[in-house]
Structures are given as structure tokens and as C-alpha cells.
Amino acid sequence: MPTRLPFGSLLVPVRQTSARLNAAKLAGYACAIVFLPVTPTAGDWAALPFGGLLRDLYQAKPRKPGDSVQLKVGPRAQTTLIAVCLADAGSTFQRLQAAGKLARTALDGEPDGIVISSQGCAKSALDATLNATIAALEAAAFRFATFKSTPGQHERLTHMEIVGTGKLPDLDLTLATAAGNNLARWLTALPPNTLDASGYRRLVQDLARHLGLGFKFYGEAQLKRLGAGAFLAVSQGNGTRDAGIIQLVYRRGVPTPGVAAGRAKARNSTSPLVSLVGKGICFDTGGTNLKTHKGMLDMHIDMEGSAVALGSLYALHALRSPLAVDCWLAITENRTGPLAYKPQDVVRAHNGTTIQVIHTDAEGRMVLADALSLAASTRPRAIIDYATLTGACVSALTERYSGAFTNRPEARDFIEAAGTSSGERVWCFPMDADFDSDLESSVADVLQCAVDGKGDHILAARFLNRFVPQDIAWLHLDLAAGSRHGGLAHISSEITGFGVRYTLDLLRRGWPAKAAGSAKATSS
Ligand SMILES: [Zn+2]
């Protein structure tokens, strides 16, 4: 079933105007959100349309940050007016969580337009809350692909307006990030017979054309020539020969008709600053070590890492980022069958490392090994990889945080700080070199994983570490928070698209250069 990328509907347009919120403005909207301080003054109530009615409702009981009241106003009671008590403290995560709840309330009546304003609020807390609210509304209003013969009759939110709040800083960043997150979630939610390897490749090719990115596809034949035996071990069990690794190239204002990769050894002017690498397992049966019914049910989302890499690149492009960024997507299924790889197979990866296979369901680290090695061969300064990689990471963190692993241990605070400020929280795990003794093989250079599952998230990171040269700053994100029942923070869908907000924050903070600088400053 062919499906097209939802370029036209990734975002609901938002405009900022200097208009005031009055009865006439309210009458033009089905929904209005007004942020207020905990204790508005008499002047605040007087300045608001329907201020008297609102005041009586608001003051009916003591209010705390995050509380809201709503009433129907206008000649035909056509506008739902929601007054929200502004939280002036708290973490980004808490602000996003509150914004998610507010967005669900606001969209409950399926308004076609929402106007957002404030009265009497401190500017800094208000700006952060407005950005969180826009992010939450963009996420909640976004529609996933539907395959129903008769689509439901739902009204769509078509426009938002921010009035009377002064210019909102970072609105561009909020919108670009929301679009990237929506794209990542949309891709991840597609059925696996739509987003199979060929379907995914076509969509990424469309995206590259739409955004003017360099595109190169390394199919199985070329990967064989390049010696990418770890990726090919996984893809050999597929029924079709369409798996491969995609490279996308983004350079602001620089046309990229051809892409030279896999050969360049020295960093040069065409080398990326950052390469984003994603695990794109379109369906994971577990392979020869087959998963159970429930363990396999949601395994179409095992490509979320690649979708997050794409969503991050989309957001950077939307912001016209000056950073030179490449994106590498390892796209295949992990299937059973007579040709599928097996425990005790020994394969040779792109960088020459030989791997003794232990468990075919640990396919993510196999495809990432070669994708990381190929990405490293173009000499980026930094690599960030994304993968729904291990159950151990979920056991350790639940789905509220994602795991972070780095070959720059001095930058742990920097890495976690981006999680705190973006609201997509990460926790740095240890990955000291002595963990490698758990992966010692008697017949090959390394075991794919340990026979028991102890600390599998850490051992997976140690395994991947072999495929990234030490002079490249590397951050590996094990996306434990990639899906969560009930959603996470401002995202109410089970698929969270976790990682796009985090990446934009990390790169804006100057990863990896500033991370090295801050570490030097603290150690001297
Ligand atoms: Zn697996």
C-alpha cells in the first residue's frame, strides 16, 4: 500500500500577532487558552474578556500552578475559554507534561482554531510555557496515517494564533522540533508491510528530494564489496533483496549531487561535523531465536532509531542549521528462515572485526556496527546513534528515560544537561573498558553479546564502541523511552519519537566542541 510523506500536515500553522484578546477575537475561535498568575490582580481580570465570569470561577477555590478552569463564552457559547494557572517553576519535563494535559483538554472539542494569550504573567516563565504548549498542541493535533476504508469524521485543527504576549523567542525551534518529532512518530507507526525496506527507501528518497539532501543507497551487493558482513548477516534471512544502508547529506546552501563515502580517510571540507546513525529494523521477529507472540507484536517500531535520526535531520534542515550533518540509516528486517543467520555463525564486519553470533535477536548491534563503521569512514567529528536496542535498558530506567553511553566520559554532565533542558531525559551508564572481558570470544574478536543478559545495555555499548574510532566523539542513545503506554511528557501517543528534542538541544549547546571545552575547564 503506497503511502506518501505527510509534508503538508506535519505542522498546524502558528502566527504571532500584536492583536489583543477581546470578545471579538474570542468569537473567531472555537477554543482560547489564557495563562494567568496564581493570584491575578483586579486589573488582570478587568483586562480580560469575560473577566468577571472567569474570576468567579477561578477564585471559587485556591489555585495552584497547572490548574485550569473553562467556560463556554460568546453569543452562541461557541468558544471554549480555558484559563490556566501558570507554573513559574519546575523542570522542562514537568512543563511539557502539563502542556500535554492542557493540549488534550483544548483539542477535546475538536476546535478548528485555537487562540493563545496571557494576562499578568512573568515573561520568562510564560515564554517557556508557551513553547511547551505549542509543542504539545502540534504533537496532539498531528494525525498518523490511517488505513480505514471510511475515515472518521474528525475536525482538524487548522490554525493557531498567539496574541498579546510579546514576541515568543525560540518559536522556530519549537516548530522545527515538533515537525521532526511528528515525522519520526508517523514513520514509526506505519505498518510493517507499508514500511518494509523498499517502502522505507522510497520515502527517504522522497524526503531527500523534497529537502535537497544528498542521497546514497548501499544495497546488499555493494555492502558485500565493502565487507559489511555484520549488517548482511541480519539481512540474509529476508525474503527480498532490498535491505541496505542509506546515507543522507545535509550541507546548508551546498548542492550535494554525489556522495563520496566509505573511502575518505582524512577529515576534509566535505566531512560532516556530526553523523546521525539510526537502527532501522522494519520488523524484528527475533530471527532464528524467535520472539514470542507478545514480544513480537510491536516489532514494526524497531526502526524508531532511524526515524529519530531522520526527524532530527528534518528539524535541522527546517532551521537552516549551519552544521554539516550526515545521516546513516541501517534498513532491514530480522527474519527467520533457512537462510537466516544463526547462533555460532562467525561474521566479519566492515572494519574487519570478526563477531561470534550468540543470539539472533541482538540484531540491532549487528546492523549498527557496520553503519557506525561506514559513518566513521567519512571522518565526522562526532557521531550520535539512536536505537531501540535493549530490554535491559528499559529494565534499568523504565520508559521514562533513555540510556546514554559515550566514549567521552568527561562529558556526562553535558550529555545529561541536554536531557534536563530539552525535557527528553537521558541517563549516562558506565562503559569502562573492563566490561569487554564479558565479550571475549574463543574463536572470534568479540562476542555479539553475552550468553546471560546481565547488563546487556552496557555490553551492547561496549560492542558498538569497537566500530567508532576513539578520535570521534560518540554518543549512543538506547531509546528505552521510544515507546511508553500512555505517552511521555507532552506526547500522548505510545510512540514518543523520543530523541529529536534531545538532539536539537545537544547540538545547540555545542556538542561535541563545547563538551570538550567544558570538560577541560572543569579538570584544569
Ligand atoms: Zn531484536
Enumerate how many helices there are, as a single number. 17
Q: Estimate the helix proportion, in percent.
A: 25-40%
* Total domain modules: 2
Rounded to the nearest angstrom, the radius of gyration is: 24 Å
What is the CATH topology of the largest domain? Aminopeptidase
**Structural category:** alpha/beta
Q: What would you note in describing this structure?
A:
With 524 residues, the protein is of the alpha/beta class. It folds into 2 domains: 12-146 and 153-166, Leucine Aminopeptidase, subunit E, domain 1, CATH 3.40.220; 177-523, 3-Layer(aba) Sandwich (Aminopeptidase), CATH 3.40.630. 35% of the residues lie in helices and 18% in strands. The protein contains 17 helices and 17 strands. It has helices at 23-27, 42-47, 51-58, 92-107, 123-141, 171-189, 197-211, 220-226, 229-235, 293-296, 304-318, 363-377, 391-397, 412-422, 456-465, 500-508, 513-523; strands at 14-17, 31-36, 68-73, 79-85, 113-118, 159-163, 214-219, 244-250, 274-284, 325-334, 346-348, 354-356, 382-387, 402-406, 426-428, 446-447, 473-478. Strands 7-8-10-9-13-17-14-15 form an 8-stranded mixed β-sheet, sandwiched between helices. It has a 6-stranded mixed β-sheet with strand order 1-6-5-2-4-3, with helices on both faces. Strand 3 and strand 4 form a beta hairpin. Helix 4 crosses helix 5 (123-141). The termini are far apart. The model is unreliable at 255-266 and 520-524 (pLDDT under 50). Zinc ion binds next to helix 12.
